[in-house]
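INPUT
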Amino acid sequence: AQSVTQLDSQVPVFEEAPVELRCNYSSSVSVYLFWYVQYPNQGLQLLLKYLSGSTLVKGINGFEAEFNKSQTSFHLRKPSVHISDTAEYFCAVSEWLKAAGNKLTFGGGTRVLVKP
Amino acid sequence: EAGVTQFPSHSVIEKGQTVTLRCDPISGHDNLYWYRRVMGKEIKFLLHFVKESKQDESGMPNNRFLAERTGGTYSTLKVQPAELEDSGVYFCASSPQRGGTSEQYFGPGTRLTVT
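OUTPUT
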């Protein structure tokens, strides 16, 4: 079984400032890692994913995340946020190489509020 | 290409009543997932269809929940009878391929309120 912890439930940040959203996971097997974003009144949208290879993953809208296996973390960063980045962000994992399907295990979400 | 759609967007029902939620996945996507987010909690997996077959229903909370995917296209999730703790947002997602690398595309969710 897997579990995902997002350490911050809310993160206020000023426009053009950097932001980091923390995610730690626990799993007895190897996992794939994902960050999803939910804008108001919309479904979840994939920001980026780590499957294998380089531990620094770049996603859409200027976001990036770094996989740290020893610390079982997958923190999300953006060097300069915009008002439009106001949303809820979800870290998720799925079991590695599981052929039968990839149900996602989510963290509790982090609400980012970008202030002008 | 149309995304994943869910109907209704909101539903308010009384305890003991029945509600049916519908999900239309992206055309051609064999995998369909249901998730639920209870207020203040994380999004939790309910079940997974591959075409019309239930691949994994380990997340279904109890036998008051019945999911179907006739013909391998749209899916319905029926709650009968509804209880207060069933309130939350129900998300549907679809993906084209099996295996852990495939991105899941989410619908906007159905907000269910049981009073």
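end of record. The first strand of chain B starts at residue 5 and ends at 7.
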